[in-house]
Amino acid sequence: MTAPPSLPSSSPSSTIAWPTPARADAFAAWLAAVGGRHGLVAASLRPASSDASFRRYFRVDRSDGSLVVMDAPPPQEDVRPFVHVAGLIAVAGLHAPRVLEADVDHGFLLLDDLGNELYLDALKDAQARDDNARADALMRDAIVALVRWQGHVPGAALPPYDDALLRRELALFPEWCVARECGVAWSSAETAIWSAACDQLVASALAQPQLAVHRDWMPRNLMVTRPNPGILDFQDAVCGAIAYDVASLLRDAFISWDEEREIDWAVRYWQAARKSDLPVGDDFGEFWRSLEWSGLQRHLKVLGIFCRLKHRDAKPGYSADLPRFFAYAHKVASRYVALRPLGRLIEPLMGASRIEAFH
Length: 359
Known about the structure:
The chain is an alpha+beta fold.
């Protein structure tokens, strides 16, 4: 395999590989232009992180700290939604990276740097040290910010989390997890069970109050900052079910909590939301059911996405967390009579030992 081209050795980003010389040249020209306006030390450019998409991030120094560059190559990525939602977040008074420079045609953004401490790392550290006070403080900050997000980011300014999108997401599970990862072909009866479960989950999501949904309000996308938290990865925000982001926070891809703590934080969210006049209803039990069903839709989607990352995008690392998501999905499906056929459908995919290990 031929190595991807890098910039010339005299370039400040000579250690960063680019898919084509044209993109390398476009980036070098853009960095030179914005660097002068922001006092960037071009020679300090270095990789910062990447994610499950085609986006990647670089960090670059200036005299009073550092900034972050997003590289989001078209046509795989479109930075315009990120720029749009960043503006909504700023007006809402929340803490997220400001877009300081944007080349939307090439997919280059210059952003504020929110630091290096992910919520996920801080929470894992607190969990390892049995520091419940630290974990609780972080989660309460995330809940306060979420309530503000839901109350101040206008859902009408975002694409709808509608029937079509919900079903496209759910369809990832049979295509990539069932067929590709597990090598299973469902019978017509099993497919009918799946279709009925999808109908119920979609109906539950659409029946909930619809407002701004981050779509990945999870510890990996929150930063420990001042003010806390910093919010990342918001470009896929939509207008959808009120319980979705709470489920994302409490039942995460990379860290799990016992249900007692999940319920405690969910109650705190519900109480804060009611005080802020968000439409969560007067019955916490009903809200908890909505949260669980929204979480189940999300977890089935993520099972499909993680398997797609492995089989299509050559990113197998995410599949290590498949058992966590199977456990989330099986627990919820088994709890509600209407969803128990779905629970029985997914059991052969996860194995009885995994069911016991993660319950």
